[in-house]
Write a sequence for this structure.
């Protein structure tokens, strides 16, 4: 059985009620809850924007479904906190593990997500008692890029080694990205200190593929380096596009175009995750 959040309304018909109490608390209701008793239930709920609130709403849904003994799968195309999978400074938290553990202890049996940052490969793993299926969206992005390049040849590049798994099986190579310490201020951000590529790209068209574009710094820096190396046309593609602040504007100034999936809806969400969810038999065809 399917339960669809209002934040998935662009792809499926919602049947969960989510509202706000006047003080801002989340109100979550699963109408006809008894119908889900002892059933396998797949929940479609985005965890971005408003990651903290959306995670809490998910825990509420899981609690209700656990009470009627439903077996639950969550389809959350983007998993927030997945980037915080290592301790950089003493006393930090591994938020990626905490989120998995929270979901598992609320009764979630399986999470289905796209290009989960800490997994670094497609397929299934278990983390903190939570089964996770990581679907890579690279093939669909690369397929879409063929139209962008008018079916002309292009090289495929990942902007850092962490994204190599996205491009490797399509003959792609990875640049090296080194981050420094945290910048001053109250935004937890480590600036890029170096970005290099040890391959030839002179006169070549290039598609850069990453799991996400957040503030855009990675893609912008990659474009600059590749331009200096003599790359011709450059398109930037990612599974998840946040485009914080004026990232899209700035990125468009240094490349020939940007596109992402609709895991997070944006003005350049040109590639649809719904078809892939059908291919993966997460939802029925038709
Ligand atoms: C980091 O390793 C990720 O794969 C992305 O490269 C990164 O998070 C993108 O962030 P930004 O767009 O802010 O550079």
């Amino acid at each position: 059985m399917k339960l669809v959040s209002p934040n998935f309304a662009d792809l499926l018909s919602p049947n969960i009620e989510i509202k706000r109490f006047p003080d801002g608390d989340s109100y979550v209701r699963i109408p006809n809850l008894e119908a889900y008793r002892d059933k396998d239930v797949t929940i479609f709920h985005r965890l971005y924007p408003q990651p903290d609130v959306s995670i809490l709403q998910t825990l509420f849904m899981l609690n209700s479904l656990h009470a009627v003994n439903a077996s639950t799968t969550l389809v959350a195309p983007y998993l927030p906190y997945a980037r915080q999978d290592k301790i950089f400074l003493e006393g930090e938290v591994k938020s990626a593990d905490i989120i998995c553990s929270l979901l598992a202890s609320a009764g979630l049996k399986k999470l289905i997500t796209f290009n989960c940052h800490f997994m670094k490969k497609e397929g299934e793993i278990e983390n903190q008692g939570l089964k996770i299926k990581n679907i890579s969206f690279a093939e669909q992005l690369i397929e879409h890029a063929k139209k962008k390049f008018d079916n002309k040849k292009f090289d495929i590049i990942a902007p850092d080694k962490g994204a190599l798994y996205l491009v490797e099986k399509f003959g792609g190579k990875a640049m090296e990205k080194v981050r420094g310490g945290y910048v001053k201020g109250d935004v937890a951000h480590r600036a890029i200190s170096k970005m290099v590529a040890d391959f030839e790209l002179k006169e070549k068209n290039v598609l850069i593929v990453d799991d996400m574009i957040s503030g855009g710094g990675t893609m912008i820096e990659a474009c600059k380096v590749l331009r200096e190396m003599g790359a011709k046309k450059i398109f930037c593609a990612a599974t998840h596009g946040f485009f914080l602040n004026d990232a899209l504007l700035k990125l468009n100034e240094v490349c020939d175009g940007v596109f992402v999936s609709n895991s997070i809806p944006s003005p350049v969400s040109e590639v649809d995750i719904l078809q892939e969810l059908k291919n993966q038999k997460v939802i029925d065809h038709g």
In short: Helices lie at 51-67, 95-105, 138-148, 164-167, 217-228, 247-254, 273-279. The mean pLDDT is 97. Residues 83, 159-160, 162-163, 210-218 surround ribose-5-phosphate (CB under 6 Å). The chain is about 25% helix and 30% strand.
